[in-house]
Amino acid sequence: MAEPDPAASRFWLLQLIRLSGAAMVVVGALIVAEAIALPYALGIALLVLGLVEFFVIPTQLAKRWSTRDK
C-alpha cells in the first residue's frame, strides 16, 4: 500500500480551514444583522476570527510547510 501524499493532506487541511473560516464569517454576519439572536459582540468576534482563519492561518501554514531551503 502506498504512503499518502503529504502535499495532498496539507492541501485538504488548508481547504478545511478556509471553509470553517468562511462559515464563521457567515454566522458572525447573521448575528450582526440580528438574524440570529446572540450578542452583537459575539458576531463581531466571529467575523474577525473567521477572516483571520480564512486569510492568515492558511498562508502561515503554507509558509511553514514550504519545501524551499532558506
Helix content: over 70%
Largest sheet: number of strands, sense, barrel closure: none
Broad structural category: mainly alpha
The shape, in one word, is: elongated
Q: Can you give the mean pLDDT?
A: 93
How far apart are the first and last residues' alpha carbons, in Å? 33 Å
Stretches with pLDDT under 50, minimum 5 residues:
none
Radius of gyration from the alpha-carbon trace, in angstroms? 16 Å
SSE topology string: HH
Count up the helices.
2
**DSSP summary, beta strand count:** 0
What oligomeric arrangement do these chains adopt?
Answer: single chain
Strand content: under 5%
Give structural notes.
The protein is 74% helix and 0% strand. The longest helix is centred in the first third of the chain and has 27 residues, at 6-32. Helix 1 (6-32) runs antiparallel to helix 2 (40-64). It has helices spanning 6-32, 40-64. The chain is built from 2 helices and no strands. The protein is mainly α. It is elongated and about 50 Å long.
Topology:
Elements: H1 6-32, H2 40-64
Helix pairs in contact: 1-2
